[in-house]
Amino acid sequence: MSSSREFVRYEPARTVQTPVIELIGVTKEFVKPTGEIHTVLSNIHLKVEKGEFVSIVGPTGCGKSTTLNLIAGFEPPSEGKVQIHGEPLQGINPRAACVFQTENAFPWKTVIDNVSLGLRLRGENKGDAYEKARTWIQRVGLKGFENHYPHQLSGGMRKRVALAQCLIVQPEILLMDESFSALDVHTRALMENELLTIWEETSSSVVFITHDLEEAIALSDRVIVLTAGPGATIKGDYPIHLPRPRNVSEIRFDPEFMKLHEQIWNDLRDEVMISYANANRT
Ligand SMILES: Nc1ncnc2c1ncn2[C@@H]1O[C@H](COP(=O)(O)OP(=O)(O)OP(=O)(O)O)[C@@H](O)[C@H]1O
Predict the structure, then answer these.
(1) 56 found inside a domain
(2) How many domains are there within the chain?
(3) Are residues 241 and 276 in the same domain?
(4) Which region, left, alpha or beta, applies to residue 254 given φ > 0 means left and ψ of -120 to 50 means alpha?
(5) Which residue is closest in CA terms to ligand 1's atom 25?
(6) Of the four listed, 40, 196, 204, 234, which is most buried by Cβ atoms within 10 Å?
(7) Which of 260, 245, 121, 255 is nearest to 193 (CA)?
(8) CA 164 remoteness from chain centre
(9) Does residue 11 lie within any of the structural domains?
(10) Between 126-139 and 155-167, two packed helices, what is the crossing angle to 10 degrees?
(11) How far apart are CA 138 and CA 123, in angstroms?
(12) Per the domain annotation, does 177 fall within a domain?
């Protein structure tokens, strides 16, 4: 992505609009097989505005995926509320699309059938759905692979299929859980830049879960640090005022990036150490 490329993107109006996503005093508990209560998240307050790109980092097992599952509506909170556009979320979040670490694509369907599926399920006719799918397949760099099956593609290409599958339905909310972590370093940087390019042209709100603090800073408008569990809370909420458009490989050398990394890592490192100590005690 050239840094001279011009674009206009939606700038979140933080104070005026109702947040797209709001977690209000959210606690999440699971019952262990022993019958004991395991509190994963405790009293989480989080707002995500329209068009914001927010990453969540934290030690392993602290509750990052659980947070995403609450926003997707896969799990209800034990206490507190998840609101979407100011309305309590009930059941699956219809405004959200998810890209997980594992494959999204159906192995028995071709690329074009996988990518067009979301539109077909929404009742669009095959011709229109295919036409839009072809555009998205091209946008994610898979032109010529329309009739391939997932097993005929590389891991990076399958990830592109997953992105196109989600983006074709133009979700207001894009939820990404370790979406690029299985990719090699070069493919990952390409995919991160592609994601930014596409997101910059939309007003989607993105919640991105990652173990990689550099990835979180390079992509985001805000980075949220969760404490070590059990009962994880928000330890830090860091605005990332780095210029856009960004090239994720180049932005890492920006002195401001390095300052932010040092600052956030100071917070995160303490939680990683606590989590490590907890794991060694059990
Ligand atoms: N459906 C469930 N039932 C019981 N416990 C669960 C369930 N889902 C998650 N947990 C527990 O909640 C805790 C947090 O898990 P979660 O996957 O949200 O953490 P994470 O921060 O995403 O982890 P990682 O960084 O390792 O991916 C873990 O102890 C996990 O075992």
Answers:
(1) yes
(2) 2
(3) yes
(4) beta
(5) 60
(6) 204
(7) 245
(8) 14
(9) no
(10) 130
(11) 23
(12) yes
**Inter-residue contact 46 to 234 (CB < 8 Å):** yes
Determine the Cα–Cα distance for residues 70 and 181; give it in Å rounded to an integer: 21
Tell me which H or E stretch contains 69: helix 64-72
> For residue 258, what pLDDT band results from cuts at 50, 70 and 90?
very high
SS3 (DSSP) at 141: coil
- Show Cβ contacts of residue 132 under 8 Å, excluding neighbours closer than 6 positions: 116, 119, 124, 168
Q: Which residue's CA is the closest to the ligand 1 atom numbered 8?
A: 66
210 within ligand 1 shell (Cβ under 6 A) = no
Torsion angle, alpha carbons of 166, 171, 172, 174, to 10: -10
Final residue of a structural domain among 170, 192, 222: 170
Q: Is 50 inside any structural domain? A: yes
Q: Give the domain extent around 113.
A: 102-170
Q: Is the CB of 97 under 6 A from ligand 1?
A: no
Residues 92-136 pLDDT 10s: 999 999 887 777 789 999 999 999 998 998 899 999 999 999 999
| Sequence-ordered list of residues with C-beta below 8 angstroms from that of 117, at least 6 positions apart, any chain | 106, 109, 165
Would the ipTM clear 0.90, i.e. be above it? yes
Claim to verify: residue 53 and residue 27 sit in the same structural domain: yes
Question: How many Å from the N-terminal Cα to the C-terminal Cα in the chain?
Answer: 47
